[in-house]
Write a structure and sequence with these properties.
The protein is mainly alpha-helical and about 120 residues long. It is about 90% helix and about 0% strand. The chain has one domain (about 1-115). The chain contains four helices and no strands.
Length: about 120
């Protein structure tokens, strides 16, 4: 139970990192946005790793990791490549959506039946 609470706190801290990154992005502060992308992305990867024992959390955190990746690609594209990287970002958004869809189509109902 303690581990679950610590992971939740970590996920909440990850949201703070993400919000700071996006604030820098919206303010067109390139250095801050790029600097904050690194811990935000690494925290997402670490959270995915920590959630590997729980299928529900794992699938959702993989989707979040895809979202952060897409978000970072989009930001870098806007900052340095005249927004030409957006198609690459869309790929990661779609992978995230497919990950969530796969969970709800193939695993969610089975897990619900096991817990009831």
């Amino acid at each position: 139970m303690q581990l679950l609470q610590n992971i939740r706190k970590y996920e909440n801290f990850h949201i703070v990192l993400w919000l700071i990154k996006d604030t820098f992005w919206c303010m067109d502060f390139h250095v801050g946005g790029i600097i904050m992308l690194v811990p935000t992305f690494l925290a997402a990867l670490h959270i995915i790793w920590l959630s590997r024992a729980n299928r529900t959390d794992l699938f959702h955190n993989i989707a979040v990791g895809c979202w952060i990746t897409a978000n970072g690609i989009w930001m870098i594209g806007e900052f340095f490549f005249k927004d030409t990287l957006r198609p690459y970002a869309i790929v990661f958004f779609i992978i995230g959506l497919l990950t969530i869809a796969a969970y709800y189509l193939f695993f969610h109902k089975k897990e619900e039946e096991i817990t009831n």
